[in-house]
Amino acid sequence: MSTSPLIDSGAPRETAIPQLLKQEGAKLLSLAGRFCGSRTEAEDLVQEVFLQAWSGWDKFEGRSAPGTWLYSIAVRTCQRMHRKKSGEPDRLESLDELLPLGSARMALLPSQDAGPLDLQLQKEQVELIEAAISSLPQDFRLPLILKEVVGFSVQDVGLILDLPENTVKTRLHRGRLRLRAAMDTVLPQTQGVDPNYSREVCLDLLAAKQKCLDKHLEFEFPDGIICERCASVFGTMDLAQATCRQIGEGTLPEALQSQILVRLEGS
């Protein structure tokens, strides 16, 4: 999560809830936007979450961080209001479908220098990742948003969703690969190369990469350990995660913040 000052669980709601609104309102709006059909509906959902937090603050026992508690309310609200989106797929692709280990082409990662073409590519990446997140089945979408967009740890995601950590990881790993595959479609392609290792070894390296992403570790494999094919796969995973973080960096509109505060004071 963020490095914002901790909110005292024993503070009165008149102090605690406005602090939560300031710290988490923008990311809550980002979460809501991936469940609602319109901006207006997403804003209504955010208001509903903070009204519930306001009315339930006196019952909050402080057994989790206030931010974790707030997102638990948000998740229940999202699930109640949007149980399943129309056209939502019933399954995710298999690993063989999501990993281009045998493809004749592979993604060419963008340079670090942001020129005009790179900036346009970044815009396309954000739009693509947002669409890919929205297309995920809800069971996979929620863990991914909470971890990669909002910034919770795997442990906190488990607390919010009331799921075992291993279940969170399984859903998160598969959701990441879905985003990675989507990222492939917008990046320039270059001639593919054969993997240096067997499929089993490549999957072991992928598991190690997933563990690093789980812990927000920017680990780089030593030179010569991974081949160009795996480097491309892992690079697109990093790019997808960075794009998710960018999506979570928005701001809460002042008009919406003021409207929520007025409703809290009047309730």
Features:
2 strands; elongated; two-stranded antiparallel ribbon; 2 domains; Arc Repressor Mutant, subunit A; Rna Polymerase Sigma Factor, Chain: A; 63% helix; mainly alpha; single chain; 267 residues
Strand content: under 5%
Query: Can you say what the CATH homologous superfamily of the largest domain is?
Result: Winged helix-like DNA-binding domain superfamily/Winged helix DNA-binding domain
Q: Could you name the CATH topology of the largest domain?
A: Arc Repressor Mutant, subunit A
| Helix-and-strand structural type | mainly alpha
Uncertain runs with pLDDT below 50, 5 residues or more?
A: none
Terminal-residue CA separation:
29 Å
Average of pLDDT: 85
Number of domains: 2
Gross CATH architecture of the largest domain? Orthogonal Bundle
Strand order of the largest sheet: 1-2
* CATH C-level class of the largest domain: Mainly Alpha
Cα shape:
elongated
Q: Would you count the extended β strands for me?
A: 2
In sequence order, what are the helices and strands, one letter per element?
Answer: HHHHEHHHHEHHH
Helix % is 55-70%
Radius of gyration: 20 Å
How many helices does DSSP assign?
11
Q: What does the main sheet amount to?
A: 2 strands, antiparallel
Explain what you see.
The protein folds into 2 domains: 13-86 and 251-266, Orthogonal Bundle (Rna Polymerase Sigma Factor, Chain: A), CATH 1.10.1740; 95-247, Arc Repressor Mutant, subunit A, CATH 1.10.10. With 267 residues, the chain is mainly α. Helix content is 63%, strand content 2%. The chain is elongated, with a radius of gyration of 20 Å. α1 packs across α6 (138-150) and α5 packs across α10 (228-247). Strands 1-2 form a two-stranded antiparallel ribbon.
